[in-house]
Amino acid sequence: MLDATLFCVYKKAIPSSVLPAKTYWAEKKNVVVTGGGVAGSLVAKSLQNEANVYLIDQKEYFEITWASLRSMVEPEFAERSVISHSEYLPHAKIVTSAAVNITDTDVFTAQGSRIRYDYLVVATGHTQNSARTKTEKISQYQIEYEKIKSAKSILIVRGGPTGVELAAEIVVDFPDKKVTLVHRGSRVLEFIGESASGKTLNWLTSNKVEVILGQSVDLNSSSDGVYRTSGGETIVADCHFICIGKSVGSSWLKETILKDSLDTQGRLMVDSNLRVKGHNNIFGIGDITDIPELKQGYLAQSHAKIAAKNIALLTKGAKDEKLAIYKPATKALAIVSLGRKKAVAQFPCFSIAGRVPGMIKSGDLFVGNTRKGLGLQPNV
Predict the structure, then answer these.
(1) Number of separate domains in the chain
(2) Nearest-CA neighbor of 124 among 29, 65, 58?
């Protein structure tokens, strides 16, 4: 049942005299989606015409996260990659709050709302510390842009995909900047093959990025733009960016009915239909799951499509044997952009770097295709 006095949605608040949601839409099931990221946004969009969909998210927008680094050197790019939930969810209810508890029948939010569900999709991915509104998010990118623009030298900590792509964006758009990348591992992009990693290192060094491997940076001891590495090296930089992964966004589940469905790493254990193990009407999708594969955006989108299909089938009375099965992507497939025109790609049997993979990703960073997938104009 809906706690109407506290439950606010896009466009207008539901009045306190409201009846339970099922009174309005008796022929439809209630589907609650927690998390408005890559996976959650797509499953909500896919089901909004077939069910009473409620999207619970701490922020008012969906961001195409793999395009975020471009927005740091071109804030206007975020006008397309940061999308208000209301733009693609005209028939869903948007609850701007964090989900804090789950029972067998309801989801509770930090604002005190209670939303009853027939089917629940948990898609809270990684921990968030984002701006609440689209305007605030774009303003953050403007601040980062000014920070980069005014700096003569920049330190980037960690050489995973985020660190590498940020270094590339900066040296391509600001070739006069001195960029230093420090990574504690033995090679950059350790999640892909050594050949692709080597090609990436060659591109970085050829574009005058100083790469220091096998060392870390003690940021707490930095003073007046002077940083020291674990190997005793000194780096002078006007600013720095820390490019490390975020923790799994599952801590809020530890006091819910799903507390026993988390593995030792805090990931949600799901079956081949993407249902949380032990719960026939609760699905887990995206980076929060324990699926043995790389955590990548296009795979999260695949999860969303399977979950949406299965929920639609279940609402029509389908038996379990009719449900779609998700097959994990066991072979590495990744493209890391290197500025606006080049990239390095890891395919199952080989890797390639340069303009060919750059033509696939680096120009628009899949923003147009992602917008089209949400039913929006690609270039608006």
Answers:
(1) 2
(2) 58
pLDDT tens per residue, range 199-218:
999 999 999 999 999 999 99
Residue count (the chain): 380
* Residues 48-71 pLDDT 10s: 999 999 999 999 999 999 999 999
pTM of the model: 0.91
57 domain-assigned = yes
Domain range enclosing 118:
21-128+246-322
d(CA 102, CA 124): 13
> What DSSP character marks residue 131?
-
Give 6 or 217, the one with higher predicted confidence: 217
Whether residue 144 lies inside any domain: the answer is yes
Q: Mention every residue, 6+ apart, whose C-beta is less than 8 A from residue 50.
A: 28, 312, 315
CATH number reported for the structural domain that contains residue 365 in this entry: 3.50.50.100
What does each C-alpha distance from 98 to 11, 60, 258 come to in angstroms? 19, 11, 16
Q: Is 365 left (phi over 0), alpha (psi -120 to 50) or beta?
A: left
* Spatial distance between the Cα atoms of 304 and 284, rounded to a whole number of angstroms: 9
Q: Is the pLDDT of residue 19 over 90?
A: no
Residues 187 and 297 in one domain: no
Phi, psi of 180 (to 5 degrees): -120, 130
The span from the CA of 337 to the CA of 345, in Å, is: 9
